[in-house]
Design a protein that fits this description.
By secondary structure, the protein is an alpha/beta fold. It is built from 12 helices and 14 strands. α10 packs parallel to α11. The structure holds S-adenosyl-L-homocysteine. S-adenosyl-L-homocysteine binds next to β10 and β12.
């Protein structure tokens, strides 16, 4: 038995055909699931009894429990409870270009980035495909963009995340264009190397956060396994194969990675690459001593990159009021509700 929300169109076709059902039945089932959004096989009125029994014997419907909903002018944060009682969060951001959902891919995270609140809880499990699909389905809004930037490291849950992206882009399901999907990773190089085989059009964002190995290894343990030169050469290959621009996310932490020297090193590191840098003011959290860089420091950093002809933007801060900002999902809720 598996959740009906965990199957890609092609896999459903394969199962149906193997059991002598026609391929077009998969189209009908997807329409019931993702357009008409029914919650049972009984409601699929154009499905005959044989197939209905087959589906009932092989698939089940499930849902996530909505435990809390927090709204602000520009965001809506949903806390979901999974059937195993673990909790995850999704954040909906009302952008000027559409509705963007920030999806979690794991419960906890093993990457151990020192500045990140989510990583204080070690990985409990990878989210299943349906647990990611349901984060969208249950928000009951027409999502136009998806960012895999919630809790967890998406490339540490590679197979499920690839199938999830398949369902997101399938025109019979969510019909979200690959270019409206962003996957953010701390830099698991052997998975970055495979990514283009599954989808070569999504936006790839790399959490860089430091321009040299010494500092990056202190902030992000993954850098010891895949140091900057290895990461950069993998990304250059990725850009060559996909012809897509990659994003470097750079969290600005006061006195840690925001000095003039760092900006100069960063410019040298990515010069000539089809890439741009997104500077993110560090979001302070109560458990971690790091502080946000001063506005003037961020602007100075920005100017140095600009002068060196690096494409750079400063990220708008979302959801700080409802504690839905980067790196602080989940843990605040647990605290205020203990
Ligand atoms: N594991 C993935 C995606 C999840 S984190 C990754 O590492 O990219 C999404 C982004 O938020 C990452 O760039 C992460 O480094 C950043 N982040 C974590 N804690 C933050 C904080 N306190 N303030 C701002 N950004 C933070």
């Amino acid at each position: 038995m598996q959740s009906i929300y965990s199957i890609t169109y092609q896999k459903l076709v394969d199962i149906l055909e193997k059991n002598s059902f026609k391929k077009f039945r998969a189209d009908q089932i997807f329409e019931w699931l993702y357009q008409k959004k029914v919650n049972s096989f009984e409601e699929m009125t154009n499905i005959n009894n044989d197939l209905r029994t087959f589906l009932q014997n092989n698939f089940y419907f499930n849902s996530l429990k909505i435990v809390a909903l927090n709204e602000d002018v520009d965001v809506k944060k949903v806390l979901y409870e999974l059937s195993d009682s673990n909790r995850i969060e999704s954040v909906l951001m009302y952008q000027n270009y559409g509705k963007s959902l920030c999806v979690s891919s794991q419960v906890g995270c093993n990457m151990g980035c020192t500045f990140c609140e989510s990583g204080r809880l070690k990985k409990i499990k990878n989210l299943s495909i349906d647990e990611m699909v349901l984060q969208l389905l249950q928000i009951e809004e027409k999502i136009t963009h998806v960012v895999l930037m919630g809790i967890g490291e998406p490339l540490d849950n590679f197979d499920n995340v690839m199938d999830f992206i398949n369902i997101l882009t399938d025109y019979r399901a969510f019909n979200i264009g690959s270019r409206h999907i962003t996957l953010s990773t701390c830099g698991i190089v052997d998975k970055i190397n495979q990514l283009h085989l599954y989808n070569n059009q999504i936006n790839l964002a790399i959490s860089l956060h430091a321009p040299n190995n010494e500092l990056r290894s202190k902030l992000m343990p993954i850098n010891k396994a895949y140091p900057l030169e290895v990461l950069m050469s993998s990304l250059k290959k990725y850009i060559k194969i996909t012809n897509r621009r990659v994003t470097f996310e750079y969290v600005m932490i006061k006195g840690v990675n925001d000095q003039i020297e760092h900006a100069k090193q960063l410019a040298i590191l990515i010069k000539g690459m089809n890439a741009y840098v997104n500077l993110i003011p560090y979001n302070e959290t109560s458990h971690i001593e790091f502080k946000k860089s001063e506005k003037t420091t961020i602007l100075q950093f920005y100017d140095i990159l600009k002068k060196n002809k690096i494409n750079v933007t400063v990220r708008k801060e979302f959801g700080t009021k409802v504690k839905a900002a980067c790196g602080q999902l989940r843990s605040n809720y647990e605290e205020s509700n203990d």
